[in-house]
Amino acid sequence: MPRKNERNTRGRIISAAWKLFYEQGYEATTVEDIVAESETSKGSFYHYFDGKDALVGTLAYVFDEKYEALEAVMDPALGAMEQLIYLNHELFAMIDGGISLDLLARLLSTQLLARGEKHLLDRNRTYFRLLRRIITRGQEAGQLRADRTVNEIVKAYALWERALLYDWCLSGGEYSLVAYTDSVTPMFLESYRTVR
Q1: Residue 35: which of 25, 46, 23 has the closest Cα?
Q2: Domain ranges of the chain
Q3: What span, in angstroms and rounded, lies between the C-alpha atoms of 137 and 131?
Q4: Most buried of 51, 73, 170, 186, CB within 10 angstroms?
Q5: Do the Cβ atoms of 79 and 138 come closer than 8 Å?
Q6: Residue 7 in contact with residue 1, Cβ under 8 Å?
Q7: At 74, is the secondary structure helix, strand, or coil?
Q8: 3-state SS, one letter per residue, for 110-175
Q9: What SS3 class is residue 79?
Q10: pLDDT tens digits for 153-189?
């Protein structure tokens, strides 16, 4: 039971932090604000995080919460390609409308500089487990090419999404992330469709 309570406390801190980062901005949010919003203690906060900057890397956790919610409502009748397009659209819409460009850029830069754990590449994340399930089913149903392994397709798809996010950050968010992904991701995925 203590394991679940630890996860809940850590999760509450992360959720509260990102809610405040969105509402107040990263710079204006203090550790005290996060502790109050999460209804935890400073001791609990510092048990899990060295400081506010350590929370930037938890954006992958926020993304995974979104993927869990999307999986619960995703139409199981959709084909593998359509499911991947749906997930991509919904996550990028959340980023476009609710994650500041500055915070996303911070996450991506921390992942580039990280010597240890790289959250975005953690194969145990909900993101990667969900992609593997969708792609496996797509191959079994004959919708996706079988001359590439599931892991090769997952890696290419994840790399594609990261490339779009990096480009959006590099360009200063000068275009709509969701509109752009909606126009180019189906073309990218087409190369993995089974040729009939």
Answers
A1: 46
A2: 2-49, 56-190
A3: 10
A4: 186
A5: yes
A6: no
A7: coil
A8: HHHHCCCCCHHHCCCCHHHHHHHHHHHHHHHCCCECCCCCHHHHHHHHHHHHHHHHHHHHHCCCCC
A9: coil
A10: 999 999 999 899 999 999 999 999 999 999 999 999 9
Strands (E), 59-115: none
CATH code reported for the domain at 56-190: 1.10.357.10
- β-bridge mates for residue 193, sequence order: 144
Total number of residues shown for the chain: 196
How far apart (Å, rounded) are the C-alpha atoms in residues 107 and 43?
25
Domain 2-49 maps to which CATH number in 1.10.10, 3.90.470, 1.10.1740, 2.10.260? Answer: 1.10.10
For the beta carbon of residue 182, count every other beta carbon within 10 angstroms.
15
Single-letter amino acid, residue 86: Y
- In the three-class reduction of DSSP (H, G, I as helix; E, B as strand; rest coil), residue 193 is classed as strand
Domain 2-49 and domain 56-190, same fold? Reply is no
pLDDT tens-place string over residues 104-126: 787 777 766 655 565 666 777 88
Return the biggest CA–CA distance within the chain.
60
pTM of the model: 0.81
The single-letter DSSP state of residue 191 is T
